[in-house]
Design a protein that fits this description.
Blueprint: E1 7-8, H1 9-16, E2 19-21, E3 27-28, E4 30-31, E5 41-44, H2 51-56, E6 61-64, E7 74-77, H3 81-92, E8 101-102, E9 107-108, E10 113-114, E11 119-120, E12 125-126, E13 131-132, E14 137-138, E15 143-144, E16 149-150, E17 155-156, E18 161-162, E19 167-168, E20 173-174, E21 179-183, E22 187-189, E23 195-197, E24 203-206, E25 211-212, E26 217-220, E27 225-228, E28 233-234, E29 239-240, E30 245-246, E31 251-252, E32 257-258, E33 263-264, E34 269-270, E35 275-276, E36 281-282, E37 287-288, E38 293-294, E39 303-305, E40 310-311, H4 312-323, H5 325-347
Parallel strand pairs: 4-5, 5-6, 6-7, 8-11, 9-12, 10-13, 11-14, 12-15, 13-16, 14-17, 15-18, 16-19, 17-20, 18-21, 19-24, 20-25, 21-26, 24-27, 25-28, 26-29, 27-30, 28-31, 29-32, 30-33, 31-34, 32-35, 33-36, 34-37, 35-38, 37-39
Antiparallel strand pairs: 1-3, 2-7, 22-23, 39-40
């Protein structure tokens, strides 16, 4: 766990904008789960599923919503406890960015332009005409191709690859081994059945405040652009195919896959291992359940699930019916047997 720094509970409450109930002089050292917390720890309750753990927690203080009536310790009241917890961790954890400077083991093309106070680790490779904005940190083994642009205050972790011509906005975070601008999966079939690669020469644009998880890939198209709009957060092992447009504030959980030319409007949420076929349009605020396969356009605000994905309520009903199939089969067999017996008696 990263080191925390202590702070008085009253001071923490003021910084978080929470209402304090209890001893404000308590020294808080870190944030922990309800189950693991001990004296000096701050915990939180945002999911009613863990309400039973609140009564037994040994935390010195907890962040809770207005609906919680009792706690065995000091309380910080918050409208959004989970968000307040995130802010508490940020305040209690001292930032530890790498110091500004350029490692002598980095390979930087003479035509590259580097902003003030950048941090470039060992074995980083920066190609021709690359632009890197001020205060951006490039960890070891990052590779940036020719003509790429990386904005200000970005963090690019080890082994990430930013291919030629890619554009990253400000405050973008790439986790380890993310690949931005890899070739899209484009092949044309020849008369003899073999496949000819279609040159993938389009652009990839990642806008401000986007985070992309470890081992995720965002492909470039043959033509046009693949675009990830501002504020979107992408988990590990996600595949964004060529020509996809992802809107603002979209959330994509682990192992989501988006086929080519799919469009996601703002505020879409896709749970783990879900996917969308190519050339589809998912409207604003669409929600896709885990392991679901979207095979047709989805209207604004819809919540879908299943394979193929459909209305979530209809999917839940179908799941219940499928589980009852053995019971229903036995009931039908019984009815058929009784009907056969009645018919036999009538024939005699």
């Amino acid at each position: 766990m990263l080191p925390f720094r202590g702070v008085r509970l009253a001071d923490l409450a003021a910084q978080l904008g929470c209402r304090l109930e209890g001893d404000g002089a308590i020294e808080i050292a870190r944030v922990e789960t309800l189950e693991a917390a001990g004296p000096g720890d701050l915990s939180f309750l945002s999911n009613p599923k863990y309400a039973r753990q609140l009564a037994a927690t040994r935390a010195s203080a907890v962040i809770v919503g207005e609906d919680v009536t009792a706690a065995p310790c000091a309380v910080l009241r918050a409208r959004r406890p989970y968000l307040a917890m995130a802010d508490a961790v940020r305040l209690l954890t001292p930032p530890a960015p790498p110091p500004p400077g350029i490692s002598p083991l980095a390979a930087i093309h003479p035509s590259a332009m580097l902003g003030a106070d950048v941090s470039i680790g060992p074995f980083v490779s920066i190609g021709a005409r690359v632009r890197v904005g001020p205060r951006t940190a490039l960890y070891p083994h990052v590779v940036i191709g020719d003509d790429a642009s990386v904005g200000a205050d970005c963090v690019v972790h080890a082994h990430a690859s930013i291919r030629e011509g890619v554009t990253l906005g400000d405050r973008v975070v790439l986790q380890d081994a993310a690949v931005i601008g890899s070739d899209g999966f484009g092949f044309a079939q020849r008369a003899d059945g073999s496949h000819q690669k279609i040159p993938q020469v389009g652009r990839v644009v990642i806008e401000d405040d986007v985070e992309i998880g470890a081992h995720s890939a965002v492909d470039r198209p043959a033509l046009g652009a693949t675009r990830i709009a501002a504020g979107t957060k992408i988990d590990n092992l996600v595949q964004i195919a060529h020509g996809v447009h992802v809107g603002r504030r979209v959330l994509l959980a682990a192992q989501v896959g988006l086929a080519g030319s799919t469009v996601l409007d703002d505020d879409v949420m896709m749970a783990g291992q879900s996917g969308a076929a190519g050339h589809l349009h998912l409207g604003k605020r669409v929600r896709v359940n885990a392991k679901s396969a979207v095979t047709k356009d989805v209207a604004d605000g819809a919540h879908v699930a299943g394979v193929p994905a459909g209305d979530v309520d209809a999917w839940r009903e179908s799941v219940v019916l499928v589980r009852r199939l053995p019971e229903l089969r036995r009931a039908v067999a019984d009815l058929e047997a009784r009907l056969a017996a009645i018919e036999a008696r009538l024939m005699t």
